[in-house]
Amino acid sequence: MIKNISGNEAVAIAAVNAGAAVITGYPGTPSSETVGSLWGKNIEGVHVEWSTNEKVALEIAAAASWANKRALCTMKMSGLNVAYDSLVSIAYSGCTGALVVYVCDDPGVSAGMPEQDIRGFAKMTDMPVIDVASVDESYWLTKYAFELSERIQSPVILRSVTSVALSHSTVDIPDMMPPAQAEPHVYKDIEKFTKAGAKICMDQHKRLIESLEIARQYMREDVINQLCIAKDTSLGIIVSGVCASYLDEGMELARKHADFHAVSSLVVRSTVPLPTDEIREMIENCDTIVVVEENEPYVEHGVMLEAFKLGKKIRVIGKEDGTLSRIGNFDAMSIAVAVLTALDCEIPSEFTERLGAESLCTKRPIGVCAGCPHRGVFMSINEALRRMGIKKDEAIVTGDIGCTILGMSPPFNTLWTEVSMGASSPMAQGFIHAGIKTPVISTIGDSTFLHGGIPGVINAVQNNVDMLTIIMDNGWTCMTGMQVNAGTSKEYQAKEFHNRVDIAKIVPALGVEHFAVHDPYDLEGMTALIGDMLKLSGVKVILARRECAIQAARRKVKYGIMSVDQDKCTKCKLCIMKTGCPGLVYDGSNVHIDKKLCNGCGICKSLCKFNALVKEEI
Amino acid sequence: MSLSIYLTGVGGQGVLTIAELIMNAAMRRGLYCNFYPTKGMAQRGGFVKAQLRIGDDAMAPEIHKGGADIVIAMELSESLRALDYLKPDGDIVIYPYRWLPTDVMLGKADYPDEASVMEVAKKRTEHVTMLDMTLLPEGCADNIFLLSAALKYTALSELFSSDELASEIKTRFPKGIESNMLSFEAGMRS
């Protein structure tokens, strides 16, 4: 069936068609649409969930694969860092059904966070990695990954990158058709499923290493990696992941600038374990080998190692010789540059010349949306500190992952740290223990708090740290595309059986004595509350609660109708300067409200000393 | 046959919709499409780009520098981001809407004028079209206007007829047919 779908959706359909009974994940761009496209649907025999965090998601999927079922777990690369503790142990144990872990890397950083290459994690745990090159492969290789996992009785990582995961592409793949599920079957085997003792651990390690070798053999038999040896050439090119999709285009581009014979090629889809037989065959036939892969030169290192083992001196063009970069994403030109370098041709000036037009382009700092409740929190923090006579530079406000981090942007410039999910509170404690005397405030979103923020607050309570934490609860996991989390209102949970976990009940249970819930749209009240809290000793937590403006706008929610009384407006533009709200527009002569954007939150109203901003209650 | 189209604009303008309409028309033709949208972290007001590649066979997501046949830019300043991707003799059509960041509104940052954008674009290609936004009837969709202008001024016309794209718009937006057709016709007359 011809359809146009994204790489993420292709993985979802393939997993269902492969018979996955449990599909879990935590939102993270660019991987979110896999669970997202299945969320809330009724698929016979398949449990789909947004889990509390990636570690929880993986453990749930793993246990299903220990009950002889097939399971999929999805996350972005940073999520694998969270899940890795369990993944190592699970890899040692293996599985009895099948476990596929779908992880998206982000070379070129279009989704935020480091350019980490998760193949490094896989190498460390001897887990197979299947690298997809296209949306089409996202379907077929997902299905293959399940088969491989079941055959080798070990988890398999399916790796994609942003440009494949988020691409919508024309593919000919079957519709979603969940097969009938067999009854679960559990083998209770201490030797396999515990780590009790050196012998058990080392036996498991031995099995794991052997399973990788078995995987290599299977993938050779199944021709997962494609080798094509050309005659009359000593040049070969190895491509992996999305770079394989640029091969023909890149060669065509190179041929515009150099005349050369067909070259030998190897498309590597299993980057762990590498197809060493195929690589050796290429080395035997070539004197120069070009390796094009995004991120780290893992395939390239593998080629060098095989050449060393064969005792053949070859020239390898890739990252180690500086031709290609470990930074950024690749395209057809990357292939052309590497091939032309291998041919000792000069790189054409048109490859490198730039107009410099981008430097004229206006900068667009990422900011909070019109009506965003976070605006009220950042402005209240700034104002509360000002009223205490503390300069912004003197106070420390830590940030966390998600929309919370937008408080770093102008006009707020409130916070300046972003580490990992839940790090805001421990970082704040570290600053305090380092001797910072001015107030230290940590800020965190609702989903981030539930994901990894709770241990930090527990730690602060135990150590009785003088710290204020503001949990910015807008009811959704927003930065990744408005997913449901455990704190989301029950009416928006997908199914009747879902419960809502109320953060307002969690915080007091952690032993936090000073706790208040407040609406961030009430700027004056929130400012006063922060000021009062900062005077108290010990751990203080404010739950700033108001639904995400984008999600509310989707249900046509408006809190009032704002307008500017032009007779009263002095054009001081303080409202724009302090809020940075896209709903406020200065056209060169007057300040206006953008009626399409403004949801009537009224934050700007309280700033105007001339009462020029008028809110009509509705 | 293949066509690489690079689109830029600002979140909330409807740039991605332009790409989706072209993609749907191409699919109806039985052509292969790869549509790769990139959105910034801002819901609105952030940089948005889309790379659309259409052809007889599968195509990879990223367009390399100097590899785009067509640039469709929906915001004046953001058009500058796309120029290096355009082929030296490629077509660029710019809808010179100015979506001003706060700092520009407050006079704290610069914003390029049409003449300077035109000057740098002309260094890349002779085929620059700067649209007259006043031709768009009031209250009508500017992205539809830009799409039909792109059909008129770029190699998009080698692939699609105006009837094909108009029918794609009608299918996608069954509720606003009259207004969208006004936009579409205005673009054709631009």
Walk me through the topology.
The complex is a heterodimer of chains A (618) and B (190).
Chain A: E1 2-6, H1 7-17, E2 20-25, H2 33-36, E3 47-50, H3 54-65, E4 70-76, H4 77-93, E5 98-105, H5 119-125, E6 129-131, H6 135-152, E7 156-161, H7 162-165, E8 168-172, H8 190-193, H9 198-221, E9 226-228, E10 235-240, H10 247-255, E11 264-268, E12 270-272, H11 276-285, E13 288-292, H12 298-310, E14 315-317, H13 332-342, H14 349-352, H15 373-387, E15 396-398, H16 424-433, E16 440-445, H17 446-462, E17 467-473, H18 503-509, E18 514-518, H19 523-535, E19 539-545, H20 549-554, E20 561-564, H21 574-579, E21 584-586, E22 591-593, E23 613-616
Parallel strand pairs in A: 2-3, 2-4, 4-5, 5-7, 6-7, 10-11, 10-13, 13-14, 15-16, 16-17, 17-19, 18-19
Antiparallel strand pairs in A: 1-8, 6-12, 9-11, 20-23, 21-22
Helix pairs in contact in A: 1-6, 3-4, 10-13, 11-12, 15-19, 16-17
Chain B: E1 2-10, H1 15-28, E2 32-39, E3 47-55, E4 68-73, H2 79-82, E5 86-94, H3 102-105, H4 114-124, E6 127-130, H5 142-153, H6 162-172, H7 177-189
Parallel strand pairs in B: 1-4, 4-5, 5-6
Antiparallel strand pairs in B: 1-3, 2-3
Helix pairs in contact in B: 1-6, 5-7
List keywords for this structure.
heterodimer, A: 618 residues, alpha/beta, Rossmann fold, 4 domains, seven-stranded mixed sheet, five-stranded mixed sheet, 21 helices, 18% strand, B: 190 residues, Pyruvate-ferredoxin Oxidoreductase, domain 3, six-stranded mixed sheet, 6 strands, 24% strand
Question: What does it look like?
Answer:
The complex is a heterodimer of chains A (618) and B (190). Chain A has 618 residues and is α/β, with parallel strands linked by helices. Chain A has four domains: 2-221, 3-Layer(aba) Sandwich (Rossmann fold), CATH 3.40.50.970; 226-348, Rossmann fold (3-Layer(aba) Sandwich), CATH 3.40.50; 373-554, Rossmann fold (3-Layer(aba) Sandwich); 561-616, Alpha-Beta Plaits. In chain A, the strands form six sheets. In chain A, strands 3-2-4-5-7-6-12 form a seven-stranded mixed β-sheet, sandwiched between helices. Chain A starts with a strand and ends with a strand. The mean pLDDT of chain A is 96. Chain B has a single domain, classed as Pyruvate-ferredoxin Oxidoreductase, domain 3, CATH 3.40.920.10. In chain B, helix 2 links the parallel strand 4 and strand 5. In chain B, strands 2-3-1-4-5-6 form a six-stranded mixed β-sheet, with helices on both faces. Chain B is built from seven helices and six strands; from the N terminus they run E-H-E-E-E-H-E-H-H-E-H-H-H. The radius of gyration of chain B is 16 Å and the shape is globular. Chain B has 190 residues and is an alpha/beta fold.
